[in-house]
Amino acid sequence: MANPIDFYFDFSSPYGYLASEKIEALAAQHGRTVNWCPILLGAIFKVTGGAPLPNLPLKGDYAKRDFLRSAKFHGVPMKYPSTFPISGVAPTRAVVWLKGKDPARVPVLVKALYKALFVDDVNISEIDNVVKVAASIGCNADEVRAALNDQAVKDKTKGEVDAALAKGVFGSPYMVVDGEPFWGMDRLEQVNKWLATGGW
């Protein structure tokens, strides 16, 4: 069986959101599945010296415009959140927890959390909001709340981020196809061709 596409994403990444809406269909075209890998750009920026795009002079203003333009281009609904950027710690822990409990439902949770932030303007950095979103897709609210405060889940989340860094992941979205890395929403066309041809 063909390897899955490793899909690394941060919940405070608009381009991660857009790619999350496209990656499964792209993978399915080539008989692949998606390995959903949440990361924390805040931790990664400490290594790379990066910063959230909206916080950068000149580039930030352009990025805000490009987020919405790109969403329209790709036919994905998006509103610029009233609180942004946000901390992705709570939603990331929720996904890490669900990967260990019921991995088949992970994409449903990822998309619900992204939609809450980028469509419904819900601040998913807040634990109560993450619990509500998870409950809306059928997760047990008490279990989710407990998981977000569970030291084992916290440690596993840190381990996932450290593992991503060790593999060279530095942004969102970041996709790895059979060992070949691709960074950015604008690389999906290359990912598609790579999967179709086996590389070049």
Can you describe this structure?
With 200 residues, the protein is α+β, with helices and mostly antiparallel strands. It has a single domain, classed as Glutaredoxin. Helix content is 54%, strand content 9%. It has a 4-stranded mixed beta sheet, sandwiched between helices. Helix 5 packs antiparallel against helix 6 and helix 5 crosses helix 9.
Keywords:
alpha+beta; 200 residues
Identify low-pLDDT runs: none
CATH class: Alpha Beta
Mean pLDDT: 97
The Rg value, from CA coordinates, equals: 16 Å
Shape: globular
Walk across the major sheet and give the strand order: 2-1-3-4
Task: Provide a quick synopsis of the model.
The protein is α+β, with helices and mostly antiparallel strands. The protein contains 10 helices and 4 strands. Strand 3 and strand 4 form a beta hairpin.
